[in-house]
Design goal:
The protein is of the alpha/beta class. 20% of the residues lie in helices and 30% in strands.
């Protein structure tokens, strides 16, 4: 059985963030989100997260993300070994299992790397297998020390390394596979006899080697997967790498991104072939987009489903469904729980909220459709408003198939407009309208001739 311990207790002082370090975001998700995702995709059946600074924030997030994840608090924080010691009960439950330990601020670590390291770990019957990478910058890394035959000896933290050891460019990724029983034993022997008076998890390697246990290091093919972030500049670097990787994967799969500048697409987004993503477009959450669409420019989509042959130009789409052949934009906002049925046209400066708009219906410009059930082939004239809120309660409008709504119409919910009904421009509708009726609801026009000369409402010129 595979299990995992994720270290997530750091403050991240150099981030200058009010939240724990692992809650700083990469592509609009906390870094720990990606670590949990990778661990679960790698097959871990039980996960324990070690929290610390502002632990309630991380614990609350994890509860919403996956209620099966358990947590353990490290307080005070006395090193990585001390952090893992806080998971003592978790480790005791999994003495007969393989336990993965990794950092919660390493969002580029993936399931493929984790499983390749696991296979190396099992094939060599190791008690401990660490993941390492060959790096160019050796400053601040944990140096992997080997003998002249390449046999793993120990890990030397940069602050404890001598000048010769600081030249070693094989870096510890802070990610390990342990046999559960051997991890429990090694932790019982770890001391804080070092420059920082901390309990280093890395000391478990030398402890297990001295006990005659097998140990090894799996060297990753792509050193990017081991990267973390200690400040906002490095966080930007993680964003850049992840954005590039996601966009590349989508383009290889047939998505057209003619200019990747400003295009940000989340890891969980699915996009069909021959869909074009134009600049300054952000697509996040569990969004799924079909084939042959044009998305953007300047479009934001979150947790929504978009069908085939859809055009979204300068749109904001939130928690909604856009069916095949819909054309939206520019400057359109579709808010949560809305459905635009097949062939709907939504034009400039239109907002749709918590509504269903039926097939082939059109709202060309300057309209608000809120809390409404709209039939098929309805035409909204410019300036139509569904008045859905009385200051205390929300109410719905129902508009039948083929209805024609004249310009500057106010529909005072709750109200129903029948099939094929017509509403004259400038009307304020407070009562239901029967099918195929014409409704006119506006004050009678009165012209008072000569009124201006009598009242003189303007300032006379001197």
């Amino acid at each position: 059985m595979k299990c995992a311990i994720i270290l997530a207790g750091g403050k991240g002082t150099r981030m200058k963030a009010e939240c724990p370090k692992v809650m700083c975001e990469v592509l609009f998700e906390p870094m720990i989100y990606y670590v949990v995702k990778a661990v679960k995709e790698a097959g871990a059946e039980d996960i324990c997260v070690i929290t610390g600074y502002k632990h309630e924030i991380v614990e609350g997030y994890l509860k919403d993300l996956d209620a099966t994840i358990c947590t353990a608090l490290q307080e005070p924080q006395l090193g990585t070994g001390h952090a893992v010691m806080q998971a003592g009960e978790f480790i005791a439950r999994h003495r007969d299992d393989e336990i993965l330990i990794l950092n919660g601020d390493g969002p580029l670590m993936d399931a493929e790397t984790i499983n390749k390291a696991y296979d190396y770990h099992k094939n060599n019957d190791n008690s401990i297998t660490l993941i390492s990478a060959i790096v160019d910058d050796t400053n601040g890394i944990g140096h992997i020390k080997r003998d002249e035959n390449g046999v793993l000896l120990r890990i030397v933290e940069h602050k404890d390394a001598n000048d010769e050891e600081k030249k070693i460019n094989e870096s510890n990724a802070g990610c390990y596979w342990f046999n559960g029983a051997d991890l429990e034993y090694a932790l019982s022997k770890v001391t804080n006899n070092n420059a920082q008076n901390e309990y280093y998890l890395t000391d478990t390697l030398e402890i297990l080697i001295n006990e005659g246990k097998n140990a090894g290091a799996y060297v990753v093919e792509n050193s990017e997967v081991i990267l973390g972030a200690n400040d906002r500049k490095q966080l930007n670097g993680l964003n850049t790498i992840m954005r590039k990787n996601i966009n590349t994967k989508l383009m290889v799969g047939g998505v057209d991104i003619p200019c990747t500048d400003g295009v940000m697409i989340g890891m969980d987004v699915e996009i069909g072939a021959n869909t074009q993503i134009l600049p300054n477009t952000i697509i996040i959450g569990k969004t799924k987009i079909g084939d042959n669409c044009t998305i953007g420019p300047n479009t934001y989509i979150d947790n929504s489903t978009v069908g085939n042959d859809v055009i979204l130009d300068n749109c904001k789409i939130l928690d909604s469904t856009i069916e095949d052949g819909v054309d939206c934009g520019p400057f359109v906002k579709v808010r949560a729980n809305s459905v635009l049925k097949k062939g709907v046209h939504i034009g400039n400066f239109v907002e749709v909220k918590n509504s269903v708009v039926g097939e082939g219906s059109k709202s060309a410009h300057l309209t608000y459709i809120g809390d409404s059930d709209v039939g098929s082939d309805v035409n909204f004239g410019c300036g139509t408003v569904t008045c859905n809120y009385d200051g205390k309660n929300k109410a719905r409008c129902k508009i039948g198939n083929g209805a024609f709504i004249g310009c500057n119409t106010n529909l005072i919910a709750p109200v129903e407009v029948g099939d094929m009904a017509y509403i004259a421009a400038g009307s304020t509708i407070t009562d239901n309208i029967p099918a195929k009726a014409l409704s006119v609801a506006r004050a009678k026009q009165v012209n008072k001739e000569g009124w201006v000369d009598v009242k003189k409402p303007y300032k006379e010129k001197k």
